[in-house]
Structure formats: structure tokens, C-alpha cells
Amino acid sequence: MNQSKPNPIRPLVAWRALRRLIQNPEDTAQVFEIIRAIGGRAIERGFRRFRLTPVGEKILREKINLVDTLKDREYLATLPRGSLGQAYLHFTASQQLTADGLVDASEDHTEEMLDPNVKLYAERLRDMHDLWHTLTGYGRDELGEACLLAFTYAQTRNRGIALIVLFAGLEIRKSIGISVFRAICRGYRDGRKAAWLPQQDFEALLKHPISEVRKELNINEPIPYRALLSDYLEAQAL
Length: 238
Description:
- By secondary structure, this protein is mainly α.
- The protein has one domain.
- Helices cover 69% and strands 0% of the residues.
- The chain contains 16 helices and no strands.
- The longest helix is centred in the C-terminal third of the chain and has 18 residues.
- The chain is globular and about 50 Å long.
- The model has no long low-confidence stretch (mean pLDDT 89).
């Protein structure tokens, strides 16, 4: 098996990318720059766990790309009302997102991986992001993204994600105070309590009622986030 390139820790690269991300939260490419700069071996550790699962073994053997299913809107539209697939379709349509919207932003970083299986896992993890938005109930506002990234850090243990969460929380605190960290900490705790999402067969779960999927994966309602959201949006409008 080919080995992926080692990831040296590059704090200055991460810091510059973080500053650019703070200036423009929509610059998703900086997220991948930070993750690559200080994420260490988080992707490789996740891959080793993933490949030992039945779903992981199948994905790697059959070279299944999740994005192929997620970008098939005609297929998603045929799924039952109330299903995860329908909810995902509604979420992406309402936010004017496409399933492959993160591909270009991350392409330079996944291309660096020599091992095609690690690359396939990393891309699958990337393509789950908006599915996780749909499942957790966190929106694409900056508060929702920070909470979801806290959830994601609990699932992946990627230090780059932790850094983004910390600085996002400090920025949002300027608008709504220290209570932002209550919502972020809840996202982290929920990520720890939930099933390990990278190993889930989302191609199959898309057909199931989203309420059942949430129950099966032990994903809770984001109550602190929703309680703060109106205050955050009002503060942003001022």
C-alpha cells in the first residue's frame, strides 16, 4: 500500500490561513489549508479505523464516492418525504449549495495524498459535511458552522478543526458574549456521544426517515445553538 505524505506541523501557514478565514468566512479553501498545516496524522488515524469497518471495507473495495450520490438531485428527489435524502436536498437547495462545492476548495490538499485509499476516505469525510449539517440541525451561519466544527472535532480529533473552532468562538463572542461557548461545547459533547459518523453507510441511510437516522446515530437536538441563534442574527444585522 502506498503511504500518504507525512504532514509536518506548519503553524505559520495555519496562522496566515486562519487570518484569511476570519476576514472572509466564506473562503472555504482556508479551512483545508489549516487542517493540512496542523492536522497531523488525524486523517491517517481515521482511515485506519475506517478500513477495519464493514462499510469502510466495502467503500474501499468498490471505490465508492459519496459525492456521486449526493450530487444526483434527480435521485434524491425520488426518496421518501421525511427521509434524510429529502432533508439533505432541501437543505442544499435552500442554501444554494452543490454536493461538489467543496471539491475545488480541497482539491490541492487531497491531491497531495499518495495513497488512493486514504484520499478516498478524506474525500468521503469532506463530502459528508453538509449531510452533518442536515443531521445535526446546525445552520450555515457562523455560529452554526462553529458548533458543527466542534461536533466534527469530537468525531475526527483534527487539531486544525479545533483551532478554527476556538477562534470562531472568540470572534462570535464579540457579538453575543461568552454564551457562545455553551453552544460550541454542546456541539463537542454531542459529537462525542454520537456514533462514529465516518463509518456510516450514508448511501443507504439517505433512504431512511431522518428522525430514525438521528435516533440510530444518537444525534441530539442543538438546543443551545437554537436558543442563541436569534440573538446572533440580530447582532449581525446591526
